[in-house]
Amino acid sequence: MKNKKLIKTVIAIVIVALFGGAGYYFTETNELETGKNLQTDGTIVVNYLDVGQGDSEFIQLPDGKCMLIDASTSDCAEKIIDFISKLGYSRIDYLVATHPHADHIGAMKAVVEHFDIGEIYMPKVSANTKTYENLLLAIAEKGLRINTAKAGAAVIESDALSAEFLAPVKASYDNLNDYSAVLRLQYGNHVFLFMGDAENTAEKDILKNATKEKLKADVLKVGHHGSKTASGFEFVSAVSPEIAVIEVGKNNSYNHPHYETINNLSEIGAKILRTDTNGNIAVVSDKTDIKLYCEKE
């Protein structure tokens, strides 16, 4: 056991040396599985949750507030609620449903019912599904209102911390995925980009609408679970992330992530992490440096 821990320590040191110039380092830790709080004073923690073939990101903000982006499928409700509760949160200050597909909002009804909820953001598009209807009912029963997520809408505006939507750019799309609320979160020198299920059409609109500076990000939550219909080379090149996180289910029937997406991300030099192989993933930033934690190597 001691030898195994020593090997992991040596690996971590080597990785720090290799990636130190890039401003981040990698550590494997089961603390993510046990729910230990990785946040310290003045840091932001972005947790990419291992929730199967779905998306869910829980963000611990430096001012003590928090944000939840998406909530995977309904069978992940207990896992998501337990993860947030173990970190000591009883309120979600900002709740974002990127679009009304069940693998993104399936557990959100349970989340709304369990926690005190602050601001809710959703794109202006509906879905004729029981999952979506139940979420709207849960929101209405608490007397909450929904803010429209669209390009240019600001969620947080302060000197060190900001969050705004880069998409949806247009009011109408043929594909529900392209309505995805794409959120840009910046803390100090570092930018996190959350793509939801935005595909190539939405990416092209973002490229036209956003400035080069707004597109750049250190960490990219890859769109549509690594599907070949998203993460076009032009788009990922413009974003130019150091770290690309793919939330995807193990042995999923869609064959996500697609090799074209992996190739595009590899070609721009991004470090690729996947929840199906790395488990829960957390990125911690103190405005200057980034620390990267994974549940599994």
Give the helix/strand layout.
Layout: H1 2-19, E1 24-28, H2 31-34, E2 44-48, E3 57-60, E4 66-69, H3 77-86, E5 91-96, H4 102-105, H5 108-114, E6 116-122, H6 130-141, E7 146-148, E8 154-157, E9 161-167, E10 182-187, E11 190-194, H7 200-209, H8 212-215, E12 219-221, H9 233-239, E13 243-246, H10 259-267, E14 271-274, H11 275-278, E15 281-285, E16 290-294
Parallel strand pairs: 1-16, 4-5, 5-6, 6-7, 11-12, 12-13, 13-14
Antiparallel strand pairs: 2-3, 2-15, 3-4, 8-9, 9-10, 10-11, 15-16
Helix pairs in contact: 3-5, 5-6
Characterise the protein shown here.
The chain is of the alpha/beta class. Helices cover 30% and strands 26% of the residues. It contains 11 helices and 16 strands. The protein has helices at 2-19, 31-34, 77-86, 102-105, 108-114, 130-141, 200-209, 212-215, 233-239, 259-267, 275-278; strands at residues 24-28, 44-48, 57-60, 66-69, 91-96, 116-122, 146-148, 154-157, 161-167, 182-187, 190-194, 219-221, 243-246, 271-274, 281-285, 290-294. The strands form 2 sheets. Strands 1-16-15-2-3-4-5-6-7 form a 9-stranded mixed β-sheet. Strands 8-9-10-11-12-13-14 form a 7-stranded mixed β-sheet. A hairpin with a 5-residue loop joins β3 (57-60) and β4. The longest helix has 18 residues, at 2-19. It starts with a helix and ends with a strand. The model is unreliable at 1-25 (pLDDT under 50).
